[in-house]
Backbone:
């Protein structure tokens, strides 16, 4: 008999939670029951799952008493408070926040890269940062084939990673500017930071708050998480993270240096062609390259603009695009749940 | 007695031409007469210069008979045809297109970097590509102080570099998307290329058409022009050029490696602090960094997010922003004219 699971979604009414619920409906998970949880403010809302109306409940420690799999995406403070309680009550937590990502006993997993790490879980599994996930998914097949020495990434990130309020701000601000009307930024670049700036028709080189070394937390996440997921602290990673006026779909301009000599751009393409979860879109003669607007709503990571550096024999440039709410968040979480089941871990 | 000049603007009704005319009104150039030239299609339009109405005339070889300084910004084919004719008739041409930039006998000049090169002109002087100008203006003070070995740039470029039709497309398409109405891309990424794509709420990794090595012409311009302007073919330059939904103001995420050892980010900041044409905006603790929306309408190049690479002792990251129509085009052309006069070349 197939095992069946009681699955909870924490942050069910948010931008990522909404995607998780849609993906759960079609996931390779035998679901016996779902529980949708949120803050007190959103509790009582009605959501639909497989045609059935489900009332959202306030998330409390007791909410997890009967849960097998708990998908958390309600912000770091909610995870810090409730994820250990959920794990203690027997649920396997898949946490989409940064709360536990760098904790030693918490696997940080992109299934295409390191699903074996799930075996070592102690109740909490972390879903990496959106901008990291799509990058490592695209770079892992290259690393496997040719080694990976160095990564320099500049991101072009969509606002939806900052939630529904950020999406609304981008739309309303765009309309105000088109109408030549005044507007007052309230959300971007970081809801909880001191100053807010125009995001419509602009580019903001700040995602998350700044750390003491003048990198942002987002940039440090990309640097540290890449090393943890690829299980190689020797990989040199540098990141500049930038928010641009796109609703969904992160784009990344990535420079890499590989270990092996004499590799061509065609060999890089060949390594990506049949890689799991990766779609090669690379035909410059026909203007084929990944675009955020095309990637939005899709689960895959799209890679194009692959070309050899003109000076560094082991250097290559790539353009990597994916839906930050799907592969960057909800879909990767669901994939982790599916992998736990497939590997017989739960 | 101060010398006075008859100045022509070719492409007077375009996005850059309009800026040139406004800047000419306040330039350090004694102007005895202006002549505004355009294609036959725009001829007859009336423009204002210092409160006086001037009728735009069709540009022909004879138009340049009495001209001292001819500012060209009407596309490469117009420059190819008319700039040599203008120079033959005694005008000094300052050409904003790519037509002559890499020609050996044509100086390619950013006054803050290489104004001495103007002395060697033979009638035509080239204004570099917009994305190149702001980068070399910001990097030259660093090169002077510490040497420059390597540059890797990813751009976030505004649409206004593609002219008025691109600006209109971005605005109309943004409105259509906000209204959930259909739209049909006609201009972006490249007016003359085969396919056109959505630019509103998107990022397009193509500026200008592709070359045979899978880099775009824009990318190759940044690579080749940087070496020519800095007069150093040994500098390694790599570029990925991306169009984003911004009206005016190019942003650039730039990684550099310098020659000197033991240099700190503070020393890089010090080198830029009083550099000509450069404004340092770098205070992460107070969320101060350059933004396209703030740079638009200003003549300077803004630099921030300066930080040391975490692995490479000679590596640094910077965020460089400037108005692509001003320092990237019209203002740099006017500066070249001012420098020609200041240096007694004309």
Residues:
């Amino acid at each position: 008999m197939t095992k069946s699971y009681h699955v909870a979604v924490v942050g069910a009414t948010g931008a990522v939670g909404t995607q998780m619920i849609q993906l759960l409906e079609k996931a390779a998970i035998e679901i016996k029951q779902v529980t949708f949880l949120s803050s007190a403010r959103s509790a009582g809302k009605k959501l639909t799952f497989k045609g059935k109306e489900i009332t959202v409940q306030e998330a409390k420690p007791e909410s997890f008493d009967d849960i097998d799999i708990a998908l958390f995406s309600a912000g770091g403070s909610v995870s810090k408070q409730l994820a250990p309680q959920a794990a203690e009550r027997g649920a396997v937590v898949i946490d989409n926040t940064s709360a536990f990502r760098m904790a030693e006993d918490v696997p940080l997993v992109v299934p295409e890269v390191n699903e074996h790490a799930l075996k070592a879980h102690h109740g909490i599994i972390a879903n990496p940062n959106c901008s990291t996930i799509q990058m490592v998914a695209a770079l892992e097949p290259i690393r496997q084939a040719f080694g990976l020495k160095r990564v320099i990434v500049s991101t072009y990130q969509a606002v939806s990673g900052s939630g529904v309020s950020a999406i609304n701000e981008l739309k309303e601000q765009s309309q105000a500017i088109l109408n030549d009307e005044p507007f007052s930024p309230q959300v971007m670049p970081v809801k909880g930071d001191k100053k807010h700036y125009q995001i419509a028709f602009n580019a903001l080189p700040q995602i998350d708050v700044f750390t003491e070394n003048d990198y942002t937390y987002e940039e440090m996440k990309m640097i540290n998480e890449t090393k943890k997921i690829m299980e190689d602290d020797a990989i040199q990673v540098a990141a500049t993270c930038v928010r641009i006026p796109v609703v969904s779909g992160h784009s990344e301009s990535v420079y890499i240096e590989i270990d092996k000599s004499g590799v061509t751009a065609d060999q890089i393409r060949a390594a990506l062609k049949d890689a799991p979860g990766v779609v090669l879109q690379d035909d410059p003669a026909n203007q084929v390259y990944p675009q955020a607007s095309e990637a939005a709503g899709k689960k895959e990571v799209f890679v194009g603009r692959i070309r050899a550096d003109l000076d560094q024999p082991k250097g290559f440039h790539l353009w990597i695009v994916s839906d930050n709410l799907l592969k960057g968040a909800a879909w990767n979480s669901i994939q982790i749940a599916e992998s736990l089941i497939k590997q017989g871990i739960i």
About this structure: The mean pLDDT of chain A is 97.
